Amino acid sequence: MGEIGVFASIVAGDTFKYYSEGEWRVSSSGKSVPIINPTTRKTQFEVQACTQDEVNKVMESAKIAQKSWAKTPLWKRAELLHKAAAILKDHKKPIAECLVKEIAKPAKDAATEVVRSGDLVSYCAEEGVRILGEGKFLMSDSFPGNERTKYCLTSKIPLGVVLAIPPFNYPVNLAVSKIAPALIAGNSLVLKPPTQGAVSALHMVHCFHLAGFPKGVISCITGKGSEIGDFLTMHPIVNCISFTGGDTGIAIAKKVSMIPLQMELGGKDACIILEDADLDLAASNIVKGGFSYSGQRCTAVKVVLVMESVADILVKKVNEKVGKLTVGPPENDCDITPVVTESSANFIEGLVMDAKKKGATFCQEYKREGNLIWPLLLDNVKQDMRIAWEEPFGPVLPIIRISNVEEGIHHCNASNFGLQGCVFTKDINKAMLISDAMETGTVQINSAPARGPDHFPFQGLKDSGIGSQGVTNSINMMTKIKSTVINLPTPSYTMG
């Protein structure tokens, strides 16, 4: 069957369906949500605008399905995940094409995202079998004052229904990073994809459908956040929320009931360049870290803090590399493609104009056509500029010159974000001391910030998140400990 045929059931006319109880359905609302192509700025796709009643039905079926799914042998759950991973990789082309049209991701990067997602699902299946197949055995006499009269057996059991909300920039990869750990652990999962990226996510969910997961174990609901967002996150059936995104995550955390939260929010990832740094290496990583996918990554380099004595040389090297970046449509695999929405482009422009007004040095001329913003390096950025603190999520990178390392650490720690940071130096002792001092979830030494490999722990401090991700941490977070204590009879005589 051709790839179009495989995905024919997920679309009705021009509108993509939502997925509930193992079937692709059309919403009773009769309404749809448009998805605007960032490049053409015209409607590319439409998805169902689901109702609160449909959310209720999805939640009820997820709750029922989870009970029997939790009893499904672990090896069988893993087998289905491996199957889904293979199907996902087999259909990377149509999914990658959706990513290009929905979020203007360069074609090559879009294909890589799908393959990486398949690898993550497979790894998660194997890791889950290892982690969840082990229990713990404790004896009471290891604690003072106790005889050996109790044996405690602990195991990991699922939480129930997990709600997964991924962001637009990795709608497939950051969806499966939540789906796979939830499912291997015996939870059912409800996915609320981002509007931009929803169609890619629906294609990905269909790969899980084709793998043969039981009805209700995985669902995908689309719609307007204003209508179903709070209703989903505050739903009494939800037992855990895994969210990746921005400020919305902080709002969710303030509203939800007493359930585990896994949140990866924004970042203002700082890059500290010391005097002894390999400046060619630093420049390459700054450009890769600051401008890949047009800077629309939580782990993008968002501010460069460079020692004054090497600043001129570094800026020259970075500028040379920025000049070689290609700018244009994602279909042409350009380095810099349109940012996701017009409102994003307007926000970025606001930061640029503020920096201009306050005297930043423009290393390139500011240029914008629609949602396409040409890469821009801003030198001599000062603390009173918004770009020094706010996250642009675009191809605009500020450089702040510092006179000592403490100044750089202070700037990093004064931010309300604390996702990742990096330090470039040839002195490992200095690197470790700086890493310890930086209030961020991860510090990269001599490399740009990055999420991954996907089994590495990934977490943010402060407003950058709650909990830790990475395959192993996600599996553990989506389970709880169950203890069974065997009380031994008091011996009436001494044996032996």
Automatic annotation (TrEMBL):
Q: Which GO terms describe its molecular function?
A: glyceraldehyde-3-phosphate dehydrogenase (NADP+) (non-phosphorylating) activity; lactaldehyde dehydrogenase (NAD+) activity
Q: What CDD domains does its record include?
A: ALDH_F11_NP-GAPDH
Q: Which residues form the Aldehyde dehydrogenase domain?
A: 24-483
Q: What is its EC number?
A: 1.2.1.9
Give Gene Ontology CC terms. cytoplasm
Q: Pfam families of this UniProt entry?
A: Aldedh
Q: Does the keyword Ligase apply?
A: no
Statement: the UniProt record of this protein carries the keyword Protease? no
Catalytic reaction equation(s): D-glyceraldehyde 3-phosphate + NADP(+) + H2O = (2R)-3-phosphoglycerate + NADPH + 2 H(+)
Q: Which Gene3D superfamilies match?
A: Aldehyde Dehydrogenase, Chain A, domain 1, Aldehyde Dehydrogenase, Chain A, domain 2
* Coiled coil regions, renumbered to chain: none
Q: What class of enzyme is it?
A: oxidoreductase
UniProt entry keywords in alphabetical sequence:
Cytoplasm, NADP, Oxidoreductase
- Family note: Belongs to the aldehyde dehydrogenase family.
Name of this protein: NADP-dependent glyceraldehyde-3-phosphate dehydrogenase
- Which source organism does the UniProt entry give? Lactuca sativa
